[in-house]
TrEMBL record:
Taxonomic source organism: Helianthus annuus (Common sunflower)
Statement: the UniProt record of this protein carries the keyword DNA-binding: no
Domain Protein kinase: 635-911
SUPFAM superfamilies: L domain-like, Protein kinase-like (PK-like)
Main location per the UniProt record: membrane
Keywords: ATP-binding, Glycoprotein, Kinase, Leucine-rich repeat, Membrane, Nucleotide-binding, Receptor, Repeat, Serine/threonine-protein kinase, Signal, Transferase, Transmembrane, Transmembrane helix
Segments passing through the bilayer: 563-586
Protein name from the UniProt record: non-specific serine/threonine protein kinase
GO molecular function terms listed in the Swiss-Prot or TrEMBL record: ATP binding; protein serine/threonine kinase activity
Length: 956
């Protein structure tokens, strides 16, 4: 070989090596940037070891390049920095169930050309989904559900030709569903996609005719709970692979397309709660249909369709308010799997015949408010049959038992004890089915289209339990046992089931264990195939029981990138390389520092020397003492509108006429300048329609004052007590509850940092001129900014009667403490009683008086008489149910504010009010499916490099 060729070879080698080494280096720099951007990273990230060889928990590398980042449910807090775009070899990114992850999803995500799985379930990301996501051409699995994403669905998602799973549900997406037009792409191009899960958003406009075509291979179409209008496109009938169709709770109108019954593989179909017209659709031939809900539409009067006698796979037939007329065929009731028939509020007439051999699974037949005049009772049935408000109930006789509303039995199920005696476990430990006390990993399954409607059937849950347990075993995850409990149908008609996973061998999981368990569920690695549950979504609660001794392999102090390079080559080339690498590293370091600064806007603010400087406030104005003195007429008595331990509140008006409320700290109760500033900075970042806005402050002449907008109608307490003269009827109270809930949800979920109010009560909820509720008074509020995201240990403060007993006992403050107080406020809203009145506690009073079998739960006596006549209190029972969940003794059992907002919205919708367009972000979702031909038939679909877990997630 000539010397010249030799030189060239060396040069090529040199270039190759320097390129790979600088890429490795950029991965390292980007990892450092993640570490700086986030609080709560695993301890193994801090001990100076090499992320790849030393084993940073959650990071997997191949050839020294980062190929997976899986940090589900590890309590991360912070934004996702743009540096994520540096991981150009990344295949899997899962940051699910970190409710502290906020901010927008960076455009840089589009650089991850090798990415196959992008999973950000149940975080608090917001802002638009970047259109660069369309660059990820290898993407198979995209799950952005249960965040706060806004804006429209990027059309570029249509470019993801390998996409198998698309889940954007439970966000705040608006706009129309994009379809291609020859220039811009659209979802119609996703012919390999099996799952379109877009439910629980605010999508609007018509479902485009062009969205569906015969080349599609969709299994699940979930568009429920949006604002879609127009007709169901007839092209839907072309997608013959469909198994689940949920279009319910939209504003769809017109006739159901006549080819709908071409969808012969469909097993669950929900078209309920729309404005559909025309005759009831002809579903003849949909012989696999298990679950059908057509309720609440505007169909014209139709005779009982012939398919009532032929769709033998039905478990559930729901068609209330569908204008059905005629006599029911007895064959319907003998379908072998039939469980639940709800045909109430129709014009069904003639004679009822439940057949001599009704389905053995039949639980409930609800025919209330029809025109049935005769009942052929062939024998004693054990089913719940409701004939209330039919002519037959006007006569006395054998049917009496069916002429009053039956007792509702609530479904209680939880995984049974495994032949042992449950121990009593200390404070927050929970007994596992194997009777060990431990800290379980907890979350909720939501099944969006199970094939069944009964929630009481233990066999079904037992089999799910066994499947899941053997899955964890096979995956060698450190799971001792698990428990399923509290099955219920939520207001969106999803089957919700609580899961607790218990660690094996020790009372808590370490991060590796949690990541393994959480990823199995966020990535749908666990497939409940061949069960009636079909697919699911899962959302986990924060797990904050990691022991401080984080596991991890022993760290050696070897292996810096430089040394690896050094051993590969020698001589002067090394010197050159080191210089180059050094220059590169410097540049990257600069970038990392910039990234850090960017992510922590206050990083430069020195808290020790800052006392005298002006805090950084968004929009809040600094007033001088003189100014405020003038605006309040020298703090005159007549301008004083309130007083408390901290000082007085004054009313004033600005030169521009705006009314203000000034909270002036009493001399002696002022806080340190630094604390005051911290509080100010916190308050100035809070902007929401349902939260009282801060206008400014005064930090002058030894005074500390906060200046708020003045809210004209005063406190909710004043209105409930009649002092304000404003009459609050049930509708107004509902709106106020929803407004306050949204304000509080904002503080918990969207404020940055999140804020626990700590003193929610009717005195701290104000009403403006249009009776819009505004949450006020953050005197006791706590931002959750420390790494320990799930609770803050503090001195107990709050107001008796509203205070969370769990917080009182443990001094651990969580968002659920506010939820408790809010539950008390809800009870106060309907009773107008003080939480503690004449020694009686409202929560106990309501529970004692309540009888779920009676009208209005038998609460007439305790209801505030000015709330309205009892026949105008639609939805009150749901409201009471919700409030009692809020005041559950265990914080973990209480719903989050997001869920509360959703439930209140759905109560509003239920009573016929428009809940308004205020977005909500929260938990709750689900999958869908059926027995045969399961969507996950190809097991390799979600697999990652041959196994289901990246290697470093297997417990060592
Ligand atoms: C379906 O795919 C075929 C082949 O790729 C193509 O020629 C045809 O136009 C497609 N049909 C529709 C409706 O998109
Ligand atoms: C319907 O389901 C059957 C099996 O369950 C399957 O073989 C068939 O391909 C499906 N039809 C379509 C159009 O996907
Ligand atoms: C229904 O499907 C069949 C094929 O299974 C097809 O030939 C027919 O045209 C379809 N009908 C409609 C109305 O789409
Ligand atoms: C319903 O559809 C089936 C099959 O497409 C057809 O045979 C039947 O005549 C239709 N029934 C009515 C009432 O249109």
């Amino acid at each position: 070989m000539s010397a010249r060729v030799g030189h060239i070879l060396v040069l090529i080698m040199f270039i190759q090596i320097s390129i790979t080494s600088s890429q490795k280096n950029s991965d390292l720099v980007a990892l450092q940037a993640l570490k700086h951007a986030w609080q709560g990273t695993p301890l193994s990230w801090n001990d100076g070891s090499d992320p790849c060889t030393g084993g940073w928990v959650g990071i997997t590398c191949t050839n020294s390049r980062v190929t997976s980042i899986i940090l589900s449910s590890t309590g991360l807090i912070g934004p996702l920095p743009g540096d994520i775009g540096e991981f150009t070899e990344l295949v899997v990114l899962d940051l699910s169930y970190n409710t502290g992850l906020t901010g927008s999803l960076t455009e840089a995500i589009g650089n991850l050309a090798k990415l196959t799985n992008l999973i950000l379930v149940g975080c608090k990301f917001n802002g638009p989904i970047p259109s660069s996501i369309g660059n990820l051409e290898r993407l198979r699995y995209l799950s952005l559900n249960s965040n706060g994403f806004t804006g429209s669905i990027p059309a570029s998602i249509g470019m993801l030709k390998n996409l198998y799973w698309l889940d954007l549900s439970d966000n705040q997406l608006t706009g129309t569903i994009p379809v291609s037009d020859g220039i811009t792409p659209g979802l119609d191009m996703l012919t390999r996609t099996k799952h379109f899960h877009l439910g629980d958003n605010q999508l609007s406009g018509e479902i485009p005719l062009g969205l569906f075509n015969s080349n599609m291979t969709l299994f699940h179409l979930l568009f429920d709970h949006n604002r879609l209008t127009g007709e169901i496109p007839s092209t839907l009938g072309l997608v013959q692979s469909l198994e689940v169709v949920r279009l319910d709770s939209n504003s769809l109108s017109g006739d159901v397309p006549s080819n709908i019954n071409n969808l012969t593989n469909v097993t669950e179909m929900y078209l309920s709660n729309n404005l559909l017209t025309g005759l009831i659709p002809n579903l003849t031939g949909m012989n696999r249909l298990n679950y059908l809900d057509l309720s609440n539409n505007s169909f014209s009067e139709s005779d009982i369709p012939s398919w009532f006698s032929t769709l033998e796979a039905l478990t559930t037939l729901k068609m209330h308010y569908t204008n059905l007329a005629g006599e029911l065929p007895a064959t319907l009731f003998s379908f072998p799997q039939l469980q639940n028939v709800d045909l109430s509020n129709n014009r069904i007439n003639g004679s009822l015949d439940i057949s001599p051999n009704p389905s053995r699974q039949l639980e409930l037949v609800d025919l209330r408010t029809n025109r049935i005049s005769d009942f052929r009772q062939r024998r004693q049935y054990t089913i719940g049959l409701i004939l209330v408000d039919n002519p037959i109930c006007m006569e006395s006789g054998v049917t009496n038992a069916f002429c009053s509303l039956p007792t509702k039995t609530s479904a209680a199920y939880s995984t049974p004890w495994n032949n042992c005696t449950p121990p009593s476990c200390g404070s927050d430990l929970v007994a596992s089915p194997n009777c060990q006390c431990a800290h379980p990993f907890v979350g909720l399954f939501s099944f969006k289209a199970p094939s069944f409607s009964t929630v009481t059937n233990a066999t079904i849950y037992d089999s799910l339990h066994n499947l899941l347990m053997s899955f964890f075993k096979n995956a060698s995850l450190p799971v001792d046992s698990l428990s399923l409990s509290n099955p219920s149908r939520n207001l969106e008609d999803y089957l919700v089931l609580r899961l607790q996973v218990f660690p094996s061998g020790q009372p808590n999981f370490n991060r590796t264990g949690i990541i393994g368990v959480a990823f199995a569920l966020s990535n749908q690695s666990f497939k409940p195939a061949k069960t009636d549950f079909n697919t699911y979504t899962f959302n986990a609660e924060n797990y904050n029981f990691f022991s401080d001794l984080e596991t991890g392999v022993a760290k050696s102090n070897t292996s810096s990138t430089g040394i690896i390079i050094g051993s590969a080559i020698g001589g002067c080339v090394l010197v050159v390389l080191l210089v180059l690498a050094g220059m590169y590293a410097l540049r990257q370091k600069g970038r990392a520092e910039k990234a850090v600064q960017h992510n922590q806007p206050f990083a430069q603010w020195d808290s020790t020397s800052a006392s005298g400087s002006v805090p950084q406030l968004k929009g809040a104005k600094s007033f001088t003492f003189e100014e405020l003195r003038k605006y309040t007429n020298n703090f005159s008595e007549s301008s004083q509108i309130g007083a408390g331990g901290y000082g007085n509140v004054y009313k004033g008006s600005l030169p521009n006429g705006q009314l203000i409320a000034i909270k002036r700290a009493r001399q002696g109760s002022t806080q340190g300048g630094l604390e005051f500033k911290t509080e100010l900075e916190l308050l100035s970042r809070v902007h929401h329609k349902n939260v009282v806005g801060l206008i400014g402050f005064c930090f002058d002449q030894g005074e500390q004052m906060l200046v708020y907008e003045f809210i004209v109608n005063g406190t909710l307490k004043d209105s409930l007590s009649g002092r304000s003269g404003i009459r609050l009827d049930w509708m107004r109270r509902l709106k106020i509850a929803l407004g306050a809930a949204r304000g509080l949800q904002y503080l918990h979920d969207l404020a940055d940092p999140p804020i626990i109010h700590r003193d929610i009560k009717t005195n701290n909820i104000l009403l403006d001129q249009r009776l819009v509720a505004k949450v006020a008074d953050f005197g006791l509020s706590k931002p959750i900014s420390d790494a320990n995201r799930t609770h803050v240990t503090t001195q107990v403060k709050g107001t008796m009667g509203y205070m969370d007993p769990e917080y009182y006992m443990t001094q651990q403050l969580t968002e659920k403490s506010d939820v408790y107080s809010f539950g008390v406020v809800m009870l106060e809203l309907i009773t107008a009683r003080n939480p503690i009145e004449k020694g009686r506690y409202i929560v106990r009073e309501v529970k004692q008086m309540m009888d779920k079998n009676k009208e209005l739960y038998n609460l007439h006596e305790i209801l505030d008489p000015t709330i309205g006549l009892s026949n105008q209190l639609k939805g009150l029972e749901k409201f009471v149910d919700l409030s009692l969940r809020c005041v559950d003794e265990k914080g973990t059992q209480r719903p989050g504010m997001g869920e509360i907002v959703k439930e209140l919205e759905s109560i509003m919708t239920f009573v016929g009010l428009n809940p308004g367009s205020e977005p909500s972000s929260s938990a709750g979702y689900e999958g869908a499916g059926q027995d045969f031909s399961h969507p996950y038939s190809n097991d390799s679909l979600f697999a990652y490099s041959g196994g289901f877990l990246p290697p470093n997630l297997h417990p060592k």
